[in-house]
Structures are given as C-alpha cells and as structure tokens.
Specification:
single chain, 7-stranded mixed sheet, disordered C terminus, 15% helix, alpha+beta, 45 strands
Length: 892
C-alpha cells in the first residue's frame, strides 16, 4: 500500500477567514471550511502543515463542491509551499460533493505548507484533502463509502461508543431544548443535552441571531414566565446575548450535562420504546450511544423522532383535513423558508459600486418588488421559495439564501427607486447559518389547528399559550412581487397549546418541543416563536421528570397526573391561561396576610405600551396599527389633550394597508370628525363603522392648534407613529412608539393592590381585581408583608414572585436591565417560638421568581421586608408560597 495522508480541513492550524460549517454533516458526511465573509472579496487563506516520508511525486485530492453549477461561484486553489498547480477547485460539472484532483506535486521529504486560497469571495468550500503517492487511487464518492474510507485512513471507529445512562436525553439545545433540560434537571433528573452545533442556543444563538418573541408582542400580560423569563431577565440585567443567558442558566444546574457537536443519526428501539440514541460527532466523525428513560426531540428538524419511527408531517395540509381557511385545496410539501440573519451592510462614507455576478437573481425594479424598505440592512422577508427541501436539500437551500441576499443588495444598489440612499453602502459580512422556520412536524395525540388558535380555545390539558398572529410568509419568498411578503398575518387572541401536542402518537417515550410539535402548517405560524417554544420546552422537561419519577409514559402522565403537572408548572412560574394555584401543599393559601401599607390609587394597565409625552398637533401626525381579529371596526378611541377652555373639532383620516412596513397607501378609507372636550386629556371616540379586509390600518390628522396626542412607548408589534410638516413629504416610520389609540373602549379602573392578593392564586394581572400587592408609594421603603398561619406550620421553602412588568413584552426592543416595578433588595424572616429569624438577606435581585430553601422550621409567621426596588418607592409582590419539603422547585 502506498502513502496516504488524510487531512480534514477542520484540522488546519489556522482557518484564516474561512468559516467552520458543520450544518450538513449528516447529509454530506463531514464538516468543511467555507469561504464566507465579505461577498465578492476573497477570504484570507486557511493554512496548515503536513509531512511526506520521502522525495517523490504526490497527488493531492480535494473534496469540494460546485455549489451553483454551471457558474462555479466558489472557486479556490490549493497552494503547496506557496505554489499552485494551475487547477481551480470547486469547478466540477456537478452540484454534489465530489473529489477533484488539486494537482500533482514533486515534494521532498519533510514538512510542507498547505493553504486553501480563495479566488472569488463567493462561498467556496472544501471538506477534506488526501495526499498520496498512489496515482491509481481514486477516493470514494458515495457518502457511506466516503465515511468508511475516511474512518479507515484516519483510524476512526464507526462503532458507537456507549456513553452511559441518563434519566432524560434532550436532543437540540435551542430555545426549546435548553428550558426542557433545565426543567428536568431542576426536578431531580440526570439530564443530557445533546447539540449538533458548537454552541447552544439554536436559532437564538449568536450563530443564527433570532430574537425571543411570542404572544406578549400582541397580547396583554402574556409574556412567557418561568425559565423563559429567567433567560430574559439575565439578558437584560447582564447585557448579554440570548445564548450567553442560556449558557449561564445551564451552568448553574449540577444535574445537567451538555455535549456539543453531536448530531442524532439513529435510535435503538424495543417495540415502540426508545432505548438509546446514536449521535455522530460533527467534527471528528465518531459515533456515540446514549441510554435514557425519556427522550425529548428539540432538534427542529425532528431527527430523533424520525429515526425512532415517529409519525410526522411535512408541508401544507389540504383544506379538507382540518377546514382551515389558510390551507390550500391540495396538500403539498411547501415549508416556510429560513433566513440568514444579521447581514452587515455598512455605510463606508464614499460611493461604492456593486455589480452582481451573473448567477445572482435580478429582482423587479421599484414598487414591483412589493416591499416598503425602511432601512438598509437585515429584513425578515429575504427568503427563498418554499418549494425547496429544508431537510434533505438543506445545504442547497442555504446556498439559495446566499444568492437571494446578494440579489437584495443588488436591488438596493441598482434597482431601488431610492437607490441613492445605498450609494455609500458596502456588503461587509454575510452569515452562513440558516435560521430555519419549518420542516418536519411530529404527530401527537392532538394536532393543533388554525381554528383552535383563532377561536382562542382553552384546552383542558393546556400547558402553554400563544397569541402571535398566524404568521405565514409568502410561498414565493422574495419573488412574491406586488403580493407582498405575507401569505397570512391574521391576528389571534390568546390561545392555549395542549399537552397532547407535545408527545409522539406512536413512540412511547418521546416528547417534542419546538417547531417540530404536533401542529398543522397554518397553526405553526403562531406556535413557532422562540418565547412560545421555550415555554413548551419547560413544560415537556417538567413532564419528563414526572414520567421518570412515576414510571409513566407521556400519554399515561396526561391521563393520570395532568393536574399535578399543571400545578407544578404554575409553581415554577410558567403561565397557563385560565389556570390558577390550586396546590393543596401550598401552606400560604390558608394564611392571614397583613402588610405595612397598601396602594389605593394605582391605575390598572389594560393595554400594551407605556404612556409617554403628549405631542402637539402642530404638524400632520399619524399612527400605524394592526387591526383586531374581526375585520369590522365600529370605532377607534384616541387619547387627546385639549389645552383650551373650548371644545375643538378634530378630523381623523383612516387608511388600510397590507404591507406591515411604513405608510404607503394614498387613499382614505373614511374620515370622521369629533369634538375634543375642553380642559385636559380625554379618550375621544371616533365612530368609523368600516370593514377592513387588509391587515393594518393607519390614522392621520392635520395640524390643529390647542390639541396634543399622547405617545406610548413599547406598543404592540408593528404599531408605529409618524409625523411630517407638509403633504409633499412621506410619512417616515418611527418604530418603538406609537400614538395612543384603542380599538376597544378604554378600561379606566383602579387596580386592587391589597395584601391578600399574594395568595389569590394568580401570579400576574388577570384583571383589575386580581392584582398584586403594592405598598403605598407615599410611604418610604422599607415596607413589609406578613403571612400568618392559623397554627404554626413546619416549612422549609418560601417562593416569591415579584413584578417584572409582565404586562409589556415586545422583545424586539431593548430589554430593561431593571424594570422599575421589580424588588431588588429584601429580607426574608420566619417567626418561631424564639422570635424572628433572618433566613436570607437579598441584594441586587433582578429575577421575577425566587425560591428560598432552608432546614425545617416551625413557623408562626413569615415576613418579607422590601428595602429596595427599581423605582425606590414601592414594594410589589404577586405571589408568595410556603412549602414543606420542596424538592421539586427551582433553586433561583
């Protein structure tokens, strides 16, 4: 046998600007280096050294891909000791991964330098190199043969190594998998979290860059609680990324082990039960087997479920299957496109030309493109046609997103009717990780439908909620033209997600959480948001731990212990609409509650948004908003101030619009004039009596002396405001705030803030009379609240839920490091026969939900003394719980 040296490009000593791409190892057999940085600018060389045993002639093979045949955009060459062979790589007449002869080299015995030298800056790639003196050798091309040959030449075993037994294995460390793993670990299980990426976070990682969001962007008091809220509070307080916040929480769990770069490639079954899973290391290619009692598939693409033989769907159901308005007449395999997040388009301060290569698509010019462009940079609708297969053609799909991103930049530079705004912009960096939106959906005992969501159905086994619109993007992606970016963006009320959607219908011990849960394609439009997914992750992690403890299957748990599961989720600060604390082991429920003071004048927060300044109508002012579920709009109410002693008439112009970005429609749907009462601020009703078929409306007024219009910050998603001095100017889109408008009669009530609210069963606002305890803001801190049982009780755990402003939650906006409502400093004391005993003195708290454990104490009373808060004026607590032997609650 001649000389063979196998070199994987990930073994290189210096990657230069080449990127490590491990996304597609399960499809093409290995990881690779990708020339991806500034489009069109060759990346810096990746380099390494290798040795040959004697003088002679050696052939070097390179495994590469012509990713867009016949154009060969990603050409590169191999340099040996700085010399090229004259062969351009990435040029084969195929779009498949294949071996190409990089050249024959006369080499002397000893060490030599090797470099991947990019020629184009357009996504060249190379996975492996073989150096050999056997000129009759041809490397294996089929994937299985390639992997066997690689293993043989590298001395790697393809037999899985048994890695041990766990209570729960979670596959996928994204927004679903991380809370699932944390929840199961906190409830006493030994948990393994497997992740096929080098970092955790999934779509919310710094690789992909998707923000957490969910029902709270559109619904009041709907922010996801529990572990999701912990992640958000960490991110806000420590000014870190979503990924870093998740990492910090995971590091605090001694029962949780994380293994990265492991992709599920098999499941060992005994009848309908998973015994173990097999994972392939995405860098080294080694195989590893993990045993567990319960398994949770949070992989997004549902690879664990697939290998376990779980039933699944992919694509769009036909209308007849669930009578969904947005389902097509015939079923198909279309899935929503992913996105390459956070491209960097930079103003370099001088004109820069951009000439797109021939292989980049050309988008229609001007408004025929069908998009209103507010800024130069990332937008969510730079998407591929939905006909592409995100599961088995995942690399091709990602590569198509490369072309589409460049097509969009070409549009901005050369085809946009405002292209002068892009004159000085350069495309500085493009991402290469596809943030997927949809692929396989595993089938559970129930399949959530559009009708469930639109009706706001409250399921008897609800464990999570949604309230984001039915957000389905246009099947043609960026090529949808004047039809715009949406197929649907229909609003929904708060709706619940049943437990039966979160475990497999035919695999006995398989849970799922993420975009792979049991929903139709249409219902996925509202259920796929990161915050919603995290909420469901905590639910299945908690359920898996109960299954382990009780020796039940997921289905059996739903049949015999559903109330126990839901009460545990509520105890751990998960929000389930319509549910309240009925935990018989909570000793606080029978206590007498007293406080040092109570607030008696707090206004109930009845809508999303925070009131800000009132702006004078000294120019044309406008506000843009999403209509309610029904197309009929009887009236709108505007929050207006009349600074004079006489009523002043005001005319409001109403327009409808399908495009969510900006103020572009030119015809009024109707106009209404009403008097604004004198002397002060009023909610003024403007009867419209219109039916609006499009998704959005916007209102505008002419200048009127003596009047002003209130502004709200952090309004519902898509609500904005605008202003202009003359009608010749466009209305600019001012995001992050809106003028104060309501589509329903305003609720102007005083909230109940009495001490007894902390044991009323609710841990967030559910109406003016189901509120929290708040101290009198006119009395200085410290303020205290006390729980006194009828007879002394043995306790060892106190849980406190503070106010972190769950009434507002649009996470696209900067997260407050410290909400003004939040308690920051407090003492926890327990009264015994010997007097008051200080259990814990807390400073610099930034979390909403805190759990304090201690040795058993016979308590005559429990007192919480608040010494500091975000506003420095009030103490605010939603709930206090008291337990004996609280082994199953969070340790925060």
């Amino acid at each position: 046998m001649g000389y063979f040296r196998w070199i994987d490009t990930l073994d290189f000593q210096d990657y230069g600007q080449w990127k490590v791409d491990t996304q597609f190892t399960h499809l093409m057999g290995s990881s690779y280096l990708l020339a991806c940085h500034t489009p069109g600018k060759p990346v810096q060389d990746a380099t390494t050294r290798f040795a040959v045993p004697k003088n002679g002639r050696y052939r070097i093979w390179a495994r590469t891909k012509n990713w867009y045949y016949p154009y060969a955009p990603g050409r590169f060459e191999l340099l040996v000791d700085g010399q090229n062979s004259g062969v351009e790589l990435g040029t084969l007449a195929s779009t498949e991964w294949a071996w190409q002869i990089a050249g024959d080299y006369a080499l002397v015995e000893g060490q030599h330098n090797l470099a991947l030298h990019d020629l184009t800056g357009y996504f060249g790639r190379c996975s492996s190199l073989i150096v050999t003196d056997d000129m009759d050798f041809v490397p294996a091309r089929p994937i299985e043969e390639f992997e066997r040959q690689r293993a043989m030449l590298r001395g790697i075993s393809l037999e899985p190594v048994n890695e041990g037994r766990y209570d729960v294995v979670v596959a996928g460390a994204g927004p679903g998998g991380v809370p699932a793993a944390i929840a199961a670990a906190r409830h006493g299980c030994r948990v393994l979290l497997l992740n096929n990426r080098p970092v955790i976070g999934g779509n919310a990682s710094e690789e992909a860059g998707v923000q957490f969001n969910g029902a709270s962007a559109r619904q009041l008091n709907a922010r996801d609680g529990g572990i999701t809220e912990e992640i958000m509070r960490l991110k806000g307080y420590r000014d870190c990324s979503w990924m870093q916040a998740m990492e910090q929480l995971c590091q605090q769990e001694p029962n949780l082990e994380i293994r990265c770069n492991l992709h599920i490639i098999g499941a060992d079954m005994v009848e309908d039960t998973i015994v173990s899973v097999v994972a392939r290391h995405t860098v080294h290619g080694t195989r590893h087997r993990f045993f567990a009692r319960q398994f949770i598939d949070c992989t997004g693409d549902a690879w664990l479920g697939y290998y376990a033989g779980a039933k699944y769907r992919i694509g769009r159901e036909a209308n007849w299957q669930a009578q969904e308005e947005f389902a097509p007449e015939q079923p198909d395999l279309l899935t929503m496109s992913g996105l390459l997040m956070n491209p960097q388009m930079v103003d370099v301060g001088h004109p820069v030309d951009y000439i797109a290569p021939d292989w980049v698509p050309r988008l229609p010019e001007g408004r025929r493109f069908g998009r209103n462009i507010e800024h130069i940079g990332m937008v969510w609708w730079v998407e591929a046609p939905n006909i592409l297969d995100d599961v088995y053609d995942a690399e091709m799909t990602r590569d198509e997103l490369f072309r589409i991103q460049l097509a969009y930049f070409d549009y901005l530079k050369n085809r946009w009717d405002e292209k002068e705004k892009a004159t000085c912009y350069e495309f500085r960096f493009i991402n290469y990780v596809d943030a997927k939106r949809e692929s396989r959906r595993l089938i559970g005992d129930y399949i959530l439908t559009q009708n469930d969501c639109v009706s706001g159905k409250i399921f008897a086994d609800a464990v999570g909620h949604t309230g984001w619109p039915i957000d389905i993007h246009h099947p043609q992606g960026i090529y949808s033209g004047e039809e715009g970016p949406f197929f649907s963006n229909a609003p929904v009320p708060m709706a619940t997600i049943p437990y039966r959607c979160l475990y497999s219908v035919n695999v006995r011990n398989l849970f799922m959480a993420g975009r792979n849960i049991s929903v139709t394609h249409v219902a996925l439009g509202t259920a796929r948001l990161q915050g919603t997914i995290a909420n469901l992750g905590q639910a299945v992690g908690t359920a898996a731990a109960l299954c382990v403890r009780k020796n039940l299957s997921p289905r059996e748990l739903g049949q015999y212990a559903m109330e126990e599961l839901r009460q545990q989720l509520l105890r751990d600060d998960q929000y389930i609409p319509g549910q309240y604390n009925r935990d018989t082991s909570d000793l606080a429920r029978g206590c007498c509650v007293t406080a040092s003071s109570e607030s008696s004048g707090e206004a109930y927060v009845w809508r999303l948004g925070i009131e800000d300044v009132s702006l004078p109508l000294d120019r044309q002012r406008a506000t843009f908003l999403a209509r309610n579920i029904t197309p009929s709009i009887p009236s709108v109410w505007l929050q207006l101030t009349n600074h004079t002693q006489q009523p002043i008439p005001l005319t409001v112009h109403v327009r409808e619009q399908a495009d969510p970005d900006g103020y572009v429609t030119e015809e009024d749907l109707c106009t209404v004039t009403r008097d604004v009462p004198s002397n002060g601020e009023h909610w003024v009703e403007f009867p419209l009596g219109v039916t609006v078929q499009k998704r959005y409306i916007w209102l505008w007024t002419d200048p009127v002396p003596g009047l002003s219009w209130r502004v709200i910050r952090r309004p519902p998603l898509d609500w904005t405001r605008s202003e202009r001095q003359t009608s010749e100017q466009p209305f600019p889109n001012l995001r992050g705030e809106a003028h104060s408008v309501s589509l329903v009669p305003p609720v102007l009530e005083t909230a109940s803030c009495c001490a007894e609210n902390i044991i009323n069963g609710y841990s967030r606002d559910e109406g003016p009379q189901r509120h929290l305890w708040a101290s009198d803001p006119q009395q200085a801190l410290p303020q205290w609240i006390q729980l006194t049982p009828e007879t002394p009780q043995m306790i060892n755990c106190v849980q406190i839920t503070f106010d972190s402003d769950m009434s507002n939650g649009a996470r696209f906006l900067p997260i407050d490091p410290l909400p003004w409502q939040l308690v920051t400093d407090y003492d926890l004391e327990v009264k015994t026969q010997a007097g008051w005993q200080l259990i814990e003195q807390v400073t610099e708290n930034f979390q909403r939900h805190r759990v304090h454990r201690f040795a058993d104490i016979l308590a005559q009373a429990v007192r919480i003394t608040v010494k500091g808060s975000g506003d420095g004026r009030t103490a605010r607590i939603f709930e206090v719980r008291l337990y004996r032997d609280a082994l199953d609650s969070s340790g925060k």
